[in-house]
Here is the input.
Amino acid sequence: MFMITHVKKCGVIIIIAILFTFFSFSIVDLVMENPRYEDYCGTGYNRAYPVKVDNFECEQVKVPGDVQQECDLQKGYIQFKFDQNGCQDSYECNTCNVRLEIDQKQHRLVGFIITSILGILAIIVGLYSKSKDEVIQWIYSGFLIGGIITVFVGTMSYFRDMGRFVKPFVLLGEMALIIWIAIKTSKKK
Here is the structure.
């Protein structure tokens, strides 16, 4: 009987923790849609690469050094356009990745903020909600663990975009949060 109850308890806690984490990230996508490559750079079917034509000689289009350098400064790349024979016809500086990266950084920031808030709220619910019913305690434990996972995953998704002076303080705050949770849960027992 003890084993079955223990399996049920662990199952409820784990499932609630996982579902809460997915719920938190679905809220992020509800608030701000994740930027997709296709929306910025097209589908990739715009003949960015030549189609081989047998027995046809093509003249290669040369990109002047100053044009290449200007494109590099814009963090773009030279994209060739091809004619019906598969020969390079012209070129342009494609900077779609720059706009995409800017919007992805914004999405990660919004995600970090939302998941941090939701995770901390779940941790507070898990720590401070009391019930004499054992199943309700399992549910609160699931929210506690789900909140911890949500804060952790949200931080990891935005970590590379954080400033180098911000990272240590965010990590210090999260370590303090985990220590606080450990102290609070040990005092309950």
